């Protein structure tokens, strides 16, 4: 019995970003400049612009991945277990959106996404993203270091871990019907890792608001770790003294560990991590230790050699 | 020639099926040519060709049940070309996989040796190569009927290996491999219950449908229990929830009931073909 499964990339012509938008972004941005305050119905194609100065400290060293590739090839199990979830993900309401920051902090708070956009020090950073599945992309994120947020709530000295919880809204997330997965999606890192300047809360991509399939309205990214560590559509950030067991670690602990730092020498149980496919190109390039961010983060792991740091 | 029947006459039936077997490869080539395979085209093509190989392998195992249930002897004429096509798709699968590794054949070989799911898949490929190589008229004659049949019973363990390979390479979602495993369970069960040379009765086919569906749920339960941290009871329970689409056990049950329904069709007069003497 042949079963036709529609692959993610089989999108109708109508969903391709119109040429005049791709090649006339400046104009489109000017036209949309006043819309920032009311992007309620923004979808991937008509996301409101979000401009910020580019941080030149972190250079990607390779071409930025096409916006179309980066926004139509997404791991987001809440919407489905293949990569083609960009369309169903549009149903995730982006406004109103709040992020609770609680647990071991002096002043627990709930932030509206608009408040974060207004008060946090937004900048653009072009990050390499290396997926544990041996593919990578380069994305211009807009966002702010999570340390800026943590300064506001003041973690207690006893807090050791930061836990990120993804939204779980059954009405719009069909994947939640797969009731055997340990929803909601949980990820986490240590407070020391979060304090690193690279640890970035992302609210935009390609100069626009972050589309839902990429984790809009707010996601996390630590570019020296495999991509699954980067929680999407975050609704809660908890500081705790207990190491969290993440979504993927619960499902398959042998393949997805807590630290998950990129290392070409340490193979995944099912494939080599020595090289990676660059999304949208025909290139397969060598993978770098810490995804090439070692100079900024290697120091975080001195004295942790006994931990399973690499996968 | 695949488009001729045993008497050497042109057979439109066989010719149509023969042409259809090229269709998945042509569609794949078209998608590659028009760059619609997505941002990771090599991997997408690897998956597509491999999935078709498994579908064709199961289809070749479905020939005997189909012939007996439908009482259409000529269906048997399709088995060889479907089996050989399956091998062709497996070779395509291997070549595309090598392409994903930039045709670094040393790397391909070391990956096959080092990753158990690739080793298993490669053993299945070698088995299919042996079956394909002995699929010529000459080979059948040299081996003799019984010897040839014994050798080609290897198709069953090869299919099992292919399904293990398919399941192991999946990430967390094993829906499609489990569906295939369930259909394979039905095909094997059919061979257990079919009387010599004919189809089982309707009640037996109904029972087989239920048993194959239960086996699918059981295989799935065992997979989640042994290979993942997921609670297998939650998976088993989810078979009762149809809101996310039907789960593999239900599809297998439906396919089994479909086979039973075909069995219940009134017997057609065998007017088309003169009695085979």
Automatic annotation (TrEMBL), chain A:
Signal peptide (residue range): none
Pfam families for the chain: Oxidored_molyb
GO molecular function, one term: oxidoreductase activity
UniProt superkingdom: Bacteria
Entry's EC annotation: 1.8.5.-
Keywords from the named record: Oxidoreductase
Kinase recorded as keyword: no
Residue span(s) of domain Oxidoreductase molybdopterin-binding: 94-248
Protein name, as recorded: Protein-methionine-sulfoxide reductase catalytic subunit MsrP
Species name: Neoroseomonas marina
Record lineage: Bacteria, Pseudomonadati, Pseudomonadota, Alphaproteobacteria, Acetobacterales
Name of encoding gene: msrP
UniProtKB/TrEMBL annotation, chain B:
Principal place of residence: membrane
Family per similarity comment: Belongs to the MsrQ family.
Transmembrane intervals: 82-103, 115-133, 154-172, 178-193, 205-226, 246-265
Co-factor note (free text): Binds 1 FMN per subunit. Binds 1 heme b (iron(II)-protoporphyrin IX) group per subunit.
Protein name: Protein-methionine-sulfoxide reductase heme-binding subunit MsrQ
Membrane topology: Multi-pass membrane protein
Highest taxon in the source lineage: Bacteria
Protein role: Part of the MsrPQ system that repairs oxidized periplasmic proteins containing methionine sulfoxide residues (Met-O), using respiratory chain electrons. Thus protects these proteins from oxidative-stress damage caused by reactive species of oxygen and chlorine generated by the host defense mechanisms. MsrPQ is essential for the maintenance of envelope integrity under bleach stress, rescuing a wide series of structurally unrelated periplasmic proteins from methionine oxidation.
A molecular function (GO) term: heme binding
Organism phylogeny: Bacteria, Pseudomonadati, Pseudomonadota, Alphaproteobacteria, Acetobacterales
């Amino acid at each position: 019995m042949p079963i036709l499964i529609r692959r993610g990339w089989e999108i109708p012509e109508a969903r391709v970003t119109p040429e005049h938008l791709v090649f006339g972004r400046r104009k489109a941005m000017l036209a949309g400049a006043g819309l920032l305050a009311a992007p309620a119905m923004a979808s991937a194609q008509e996301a409101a612009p979000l401009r910020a100065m580019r941080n030149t400290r972190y250079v990607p060293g390779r071409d930025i991945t096409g916006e179309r590739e980066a926004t139509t090839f997404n791991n987001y199990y809440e919407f489905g277990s293949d990569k083609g979830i960009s369309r169903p993900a549009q149903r995730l309401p982006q406004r109103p959106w709040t992020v609770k920051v609680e647990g071991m902090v002096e002043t627990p708070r709930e932030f509206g996404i608009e408040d974060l956009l207004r008060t946090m020090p937004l900048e653009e950073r072009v990050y390499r993203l290396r997926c544990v599945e041996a593919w990578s992309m380069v994305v211009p994120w807009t966002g702010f270091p999570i340390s800026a947020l943590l300064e506001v709530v003041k973690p207690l000295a006893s807090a050791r871990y930061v836990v990120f919880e993804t939204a779980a809204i059954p009405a719009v997330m069909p994947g939640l019907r797969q009731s055997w997965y340990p929803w909601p999606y949980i990820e986490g890192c240590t407070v020391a890792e979060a304090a690193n300047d690279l640890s970035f809360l992302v609210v935009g991509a390609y100069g626009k608001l972050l589309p839902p399939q990429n984790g809009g309205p707010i996601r996390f990214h630590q570019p020296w770790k495999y991509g699954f560590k980067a929680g999407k559509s975050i609704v809660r950030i908890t500081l705790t003294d207990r190491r969290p067991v993440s979504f993927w670690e619960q499902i398959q602990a042998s393949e997805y560990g807590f630290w998950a730092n990129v290392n070409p020498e340490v193979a995944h149980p099912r494939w080599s991590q020595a090289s990676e496919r660059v999304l949208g190109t025909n290139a397969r390039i060598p993978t770098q230790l810490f995804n090439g961010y070692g100079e900024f983060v290697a120091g975080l792991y001195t004295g942790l050699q006994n931990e399973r740091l690499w996968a | 020639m695949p488009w001729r029947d045993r008497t050497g006459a042109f057979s439109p039936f066989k010719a149509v099926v023969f042409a259809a077997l090229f269709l998945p490869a042509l569609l794949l080539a078209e998608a590659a040519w028009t760059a619609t395979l997505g941002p990771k085209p090599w991997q997408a093509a690897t998956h597509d060709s491999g999935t078709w190989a498994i579908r064709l392998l199961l289809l070749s195992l479905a020939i005997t049940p189909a012939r007996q249930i439908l009482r259409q002897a000529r269906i048997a004429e399709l088995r060889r070309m479907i089996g050989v096509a399956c091998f062709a798709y497996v070779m395509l699968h291997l070549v595309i996989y090598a392409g994903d590794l930039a045709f670094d054949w040393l790397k391909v070989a070391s990956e096959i040796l080092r990753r158990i799911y690739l080793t298993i898949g490669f053993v299945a490929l070698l088995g299919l190569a042996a079956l394909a190589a002995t699929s010529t008229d000459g080979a059948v004659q040299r081996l003799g009927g019984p010897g040839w049949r014994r050798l080609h019973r290897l198709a069953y363990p090869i299919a099992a290996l292919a399904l293990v390979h398919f399941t192991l390479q999946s990430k967390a979602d094993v829906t499609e491999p489990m569906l295939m495993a369930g259909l394979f369970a039905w095909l094997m069960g059919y061979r257990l219950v079919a009387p010599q040379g004919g189809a089982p009765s309707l009640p037996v086919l109904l029972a087989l449908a239920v048993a194959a569906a239960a086996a699918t749920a059981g295989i799935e339960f065992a997979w989640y229990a042994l290979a993942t941290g997921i609670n297998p009871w939650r998976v088993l329970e989810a078979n009762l929830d149809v809101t996310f689409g039907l789960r593999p056990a239900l599809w297998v049950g439906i396919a089994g009931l479909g086979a039973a329904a075909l069995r219940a069709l009134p017997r057609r007069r065998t007017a088309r073909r003169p009695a085979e003497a």
